[in-house]
Amino acid sequence: MNKTVRKLVALLLCAACTAGAADADEFPSKPIRWLVGYPAGGGTDTVARVVTAAMASELKQTIVIENKPGASANIAGAELVHSAPDGIE
Question: I need a surface site. Which of 38, 45, 53, 60 has the fewest CB within 10 A?
Fold first, then answer.
């Protein structure tokens, strides 16, 4: 598998993992941040926007896409690691 396909599969798996959140009480209580490690307008950004549109309608929650391009997506990864906990254990 090439890198693009692996990234797409990982993205879809992440989306599938968050689908269970729809059953939780009062979750999420604030907009969901979706970090994309590539520039806006690219293939990864386009896929993220399609997936988040479907998730937002299913969860009835706002999803904000934040593009953090650079360093082979390590900037977005660092942002994720250093972000505030969201209360999920």
Answer: 60
